[in-house]
Every structure is written in structure tokens, then in C-alpha cells.
Amino acid sequence: MADELAAKRIAEFIAPLRVTPGSKVTLAKDFDPSYKADFVKKKDGLELLQRGVELMSEYQERLAAQDTYGLLVVLQAMDAAGKDGTIRHVMSGVNPQGVFVHSFKVPSAEEINHDYLWRYTRALPGRGEIAIFNRSHYEEVLVVRVHPENLARQRLPKEARGRDVWKLRYRDINDWERHLTDNGFRIVKLLLNLSAEEQRVRFLRRIDLPDHNWKFSSADARERTFWPAYQKAFSEMLSATSTEWAPWYVIPADHKWFARICASAVIANALIQIDPRYPTIAPEARKALKETKSELEAEAPKGAAPDPFAAEEAAKKADKKARKKAEKEQEKAAKAERKAAKADKKAAKADERATNAKKQAGREAGEEENAGATAEKEAGR
Ligand code: AMP
Ligand code: MG
């Protein structure tokens, strides 16, 4: 039940970030890079992120155990939007054995010698695995579109070039993603949406802090001059490739802490929807396990518990129960204390009001008496 509630909260939290399939997006108009949900403060953020990481850790284990579904997380963004940091934070709790990160750079000679989806296909997750694409096949309709010399390098045949090349690529990508989804590989697509001003500040930070110089290249600043072209390419990409099977989520990226919460929530949501289960074993296999258990228990040396693990688990369970009870009582006592303090404060206020009223009445009575005396005096004169 608690899980269902958490799932519902997460789904509601990420709903405004989802790009409705079929909608026409203008990134700058439709998504605010500095958005943060009203109810989330930075200090609550850490707790939320921790919760997200725990959730992911649990679901990743189940995903691996079930060995049927895989998850692909696609990260796209302008430079300095926080892709690396998001990966670091979001994946901080998961088992590295089941997660792979692939960063896609300028294609190598071997890569360029194949169709443009080849290198991305080779990096896909297997069943039970999570893969994160740090940049992805979407570069093929972003950087390649903004800088046409990249397309020229690809040595496409005439029928794959022409005016419709981007339309063709959107179609290819949607079909490819649908095929993957139908075969058990779910795709989560995140665009970290940074404002030009926040990028400017982050670039300056990289220049001003010597330890951060390595993250900056003058090429990044040059790329920044293509901002409007990228915004346009992003908008068209979102409009054409947000599908029912693999919708885009636009993550407001001007506040890093909020971006990380959003990213982990979208990934957690996908895992919850996959709902991977630990495989259950057949009744005969369970019977065999029971028999083996009895045999192992019978082998216990003198004085040893037949099943020390079961004993330990029982003790842990009892301990947890006692701790929960104590916590509940503590909370109850604190609540009562708060209530009493509130009542005290209220009583003190009432007292103060009564005293003030009395004082005021006294003053008014005094004034009246004075006035009476003056009048009498005047009448006597
Ligand atoms: P970084 O992510 O900062 O290490 O930079 C990787 C660089 O590779 C970026 O400038 C990307 O634009 C570039 N890149 C990634 N994929 C492609 C591609 N398919 N064609 C051309 N350039 C690419
Ligand atoms: Mg770079």
C-alpha cells in the first residue's frame, strides 16, 4: 500500500515534465528551465533524492533477478547542464554490476563506416540491465543537424540525404525505440533543460575555479553561439519523437538539486511500471529446498543453533518492531508536548488580554473620575 502511494506521488510529480506525444513543442515557451515544484524546498530535496535512490536500488535488484526486461536511460542536454552530475547522483545507490554508462563522442572512423544507429545498438542494455546513454542517438538529429558537416562525413547515399533526412531519422528512431520497447527494453528520455544565462554562469565558474578548468574548452563557448539553432532542433526533436512508448521528459536544469530529483523520479517511475518481480520457484523446487534445509540443520555441531540465520533474522525483526514502536511513542509524546505548549501559549495570551483590558478599564474609570471632579470644581466656582 505504501508503495502504491509512493508510486502515485512520483507519477504526479513528473506529469508536468512529460512531453505529450503528438504535441508541438516550442522549448523556450513550453518549459521553464528554472521551474521547481512549489512544494519542494532544497532541504526536502535531499530526503527525496535519498528516497529515489533507495527505490532504484530495490527495483534494480529485482530487474536483474527477473532477467526479462532492460532499461535504457537517454540523457541529452547542452554543455554544463549537469549530465555527469545527474548520472553520479541518480545512480549512487545502485549495484554497479547491473548498470552501464556510455558516453557518445564524435564518431570514430569505424562508427562512421556503419549506419548511424549502429554504435548505439551496440551499447544497448541486456535483459536485467540498466544502460545510461550520456548523449545518444539523438545527437544524430541535434549536433549533426546544427553542423551539417557532420552529415557530410557520414557518406550517406542520395536516397538517405535530401530535405527529408530529419523526418526520416525521426521515423527511424521512433520505429527503433518501439521495437526495443516491444521486446522488453524500456526507454526513458531526459532532456536537461538549461537556460542560456545559467550556462554562461556555469562556464564562468569553470574558468574561475582552477580545479574546474579541465571541464571547459573554448569549443564549448563556440557551441554556445549556436544556442538558437539547438533550441530549434530540440523543439523539433521533442515534437517528433515523444511517443506513447518512449515519451520525452524535459527536466528543468537551472537548479541542480531539483534536476536530480526529477531525473531520479522519472527513472523510478519507469522501474515501478516495469514492476520486475523476483522469480518464484515451482512447488517441487520449494519442497527440495525444505528437504535440504532439514539436512543442513541436522548437520549442526553440538551447541550450535540448527539455523543461525533464521534465529538472527527473527531477532532483527523483533528489534525493528521494537524500534518502530519506540519511534511511534516518541512521536506521540512530542505531539502531546507540542499541543501542551500551544495550549500554554494560548492561555498566556488570554491572560495578557485580560490584564490589558483591566488596565484599560482602570484608565478609563480614572479619566471619568477626573472629569467628574473637574466638572464639580467648575460647578462649585
Ligand atoms: P562531451 O560530451 O563534452 O565529452 O563532448 C562530446 C562531443 O561529441 C560533443 O561536442 C558532441 O556534440 C559530439 N558528438 C556526439 N555525438 C556526435 C555525433 N553523432 N556526431 C558529431 N558529433 C557528436
Ligand atoms: Mg563537453
Architecture overview:
The chain has 381 residues and is α/β, with parallel strands linked by helices. The chain is 60% helix and 8% strand. The protein contains 15 helices and five strands. It has helices at residues 2-14, 27-30, 42-66, 83-90, 109-112, 118-121, 143-146, 149-153, 165-182, 196-208, 218-224, 227-241, 256-274, 283-298, 308-380; strands at 70-77, 99-103, 130-134, 185-193, 248-252. The chain has a five-stranded parallel β-sheet with strand order 2-3-1-4-5, with helices on both faces. The radius of gyration is 32 Å and the shape is flat. The relative contact order is 0.14. The model has no long low-confidence stretch (mean pLDDT 93). Magnesium ion is lined by residues 79, 220.
> How does the overall form come out from the CA principal axes?
flat
Chemical compounds bound to the protein: adenosine monophosphate, magnesium ion
Strand order in space, largest sheet: 2-3-1-4-5
H and E order: HHHEHEHHEHHHEHHHEHHH
Number of extended strands: 5
Instruction: Report the span from N to C terminus.
Output: 90 Å
Q: Supply the number of helical segments.
A: 15
Helical proportion, percent range: 55-70%
Structural class: alpha/beta
Radius of gyration: 32 Å
Q: How much strand?
A: 5-15%
Largest sheet: 5 strands, parallel
Residue windows where pLDDT falls under 50 for at least 5 positions: none
Q: Summarize model confidence as the mean pLDDT.
A: 93
